[in-house]
Fold this sequence. Notes:
Elements: E1 2-6, H1 12-21, E2 26-31, H2 43-59, E3 64-67, H3 70-83, E4 89-90, H4 96-102, E5 107-112, H5 114-117, H6 120-127, E6 134-139, H7 143-148, H8 155-170, E7 175-179, H9 187-194, E8 199-201, H10 204-214, E9 223-228, H11 233-242
Parallel strand pairs: 1-2, 1-3, 2-9, 3-4, 5-6, 5-7, 7-8
The site of D-glutamic acid has 17 residues, from helix 3.
Amino acid sequence: MIGVFDSGVGGLSVFKELRKALPRERYVYFCDNAHCPYGTKSQQYIIDRAEAITKFLMDKGCNIIVVACNTATAAAIAHLRSHYPDFPFVGIEPAVKLAAAVTSKKVIGTLATAGTLSGEKYALALNRLPADIKVVEHIGEGFVELVENGKFEGPEVEEVIKKSLNPLLEAGADVIVLGCTHYPFLSPAIEKIAGENVTVIDPAPAVARRTKDILPSSDGIYGFEYYASGSPATLEKLLETLE
Ligand code: DGL
């Protein structure tokens, strides 16, 4: 059974890809929206949440956990792995390596939370890029709140997106990395503003492939359960559109 968690509904963008890659599995999704957003919280706060959710998912019988949140991966996955050395965890990180292979202008723009952009993992990923690649970043200010409120398109949404996306486009980025699992729900609006010469990258399919590679043996039963620490309204609305 595969456990999946995020600070809110964002992890559903990963769950969608997991279900495509591994349709005959049992899933438990935990939406921690009573504690959302994680992006502005301290590392210790996120470690405490990740630990509590991990215990919950293990008690439900999960034998692998997908941390479907870039911020929680940055803050807590090393801690989870050292605490449970024999248990498989899959995380998600901004796909700057893939973006470096795609950009023709050699300029990448990353949109992510403050927690992800200031984390050690992101700094390490940047250090591994070819020296001629320039990376510009911006926090997706207000993006998580839009998605948690079920707002994905329209003039109000586009105004919010432009404030964070335009600085990256003005810096010459021809690839935009979505470094937060909430942001793919805003992809149509992001693509509309960025224009057809800009590629938008979501690492969720790569996370699903990685999960498939390391999945412990399955019991052959399939199904889905979900839990939310806050209101399940947006989660339920989005789940209907995923089906
Ligand atoms: N969806 C999360 C991520 O991938 C976190 C959003 C938040 O709670 O700030 O980073």
